[in-house]
Amino acid sequence: MKFEKRIRQAQLGKTDLVAMLNATGEERTLLFRESARIKEAHVGRKVYFRGLIEFSNICSKDCYYCGIRKSNKTVARYNLSDEEILRAATYAHEQNYGSVVIQGGEIASPAFTLRIENLLKQIKQLSGNSLGITLSLGEQSPETYERWRDAGAHRYLLRIETSDRELYKKIHPEDAHHDFDKRYECLRTLQELGYQAGTGVMIGLPFQTTEHLADDLLFMQSFDVDMVGMGPYIEHHDTPLYAFRNELLPIGERFDLALKMIAALRILMKDINIAAATALQAIDPLGREKAVKIGANVIMPNVTPGLFRNDYALYENKPCTDENPDDCKNCLDARIQLADGEIGYGEWGDSVHYARRMERTRQL
Ligand code: SAH
Ligand code: SF4
Q1: What is the pLDDT at residue 357?
Q2: Ligand 1 atom, smallest distance to 314 CA
Q3: N or C: which end of the chain has fewer CB within 10 A?
């Protein structure tokens, strides 16, 4: 079948997605043109900002790919004070970003649940209820997710990392803390609790094939997620997966594959929110804007106080780590315009898919 016809089919299957991920030359151009067209038709040109607060790099887990994993003794651990977190949220509010994302290492304890609950209430208060809040704090109990929802969080990002169980086992320790089924269950719970549930995968992992990635896209579709944040895997020298660095795709190809994943996902799930991952920017200074051009509609400018950014190194070459948040904002404005986007200042920019999903649920 001709490529152009293939990507316009109503029902896309695995072979169609694999063809998209393998596209080069003219086919690659056609893919990006089609995903840009679909983006504009279904979610418009607006790009929504979420001020990213990386509030702590203390983590109880040991994912083999991540620079802040528990066993990495070379990391200086930090935990922002409540005041620093609230100041970062105030900054995002003043910049008219519309939402914040609170992300950090995974900790599950009653004290942690309470701390986040109080912070959520205070962020809502300081912004007169106007800031939207996304959490990305890993696997928690249903009760904790429920309390955080009631305190004001309405979106949650929990990447499945890979939808392939075997690959999942290869990139995590084999114990109860790193269990695929547990992660899957958490994602389902979030969805059932009424969160806008977001997931994602890393692209270009060792042992990962194009078929795995096509299955990841089908997983997102069958799970019916509202938002996705996915980006290239970037090796970190203090992690076990670094041993496989010679088996990876060259970094430029990993970047390109990530763009094709975003384009294919936009064609597959037309009305979801897709974030341009920060890892794209670590490879190419204009990486996120390139993603916006071909399908992404959310960007997460970092508003973590500059002092701590160097220590939140999940991977190497994280951008803007030495700078102030202001530096990021000024350059972002101009660059979004170059990517044919306009910024939805002060808007939550909720996923259109979520609104439709809720409407369907109400009708049942
Ligand atoms: N602890 C939480 C949130 C922080 S980690 C959690 O794991 O859900 C956020 C994301 O960073 C992870 O989901 C993972 O996909 C990504 N990440 C970690 N190490 C990475 C690496 N080396 N390259 C690219 N992305 C990485
Ligand atoms: Fe911790 Fe998240 Fe890194 Fe895993 S990916 S080690 S859970 S911060």
Answers
A1: 87
A2: 19
A3: C
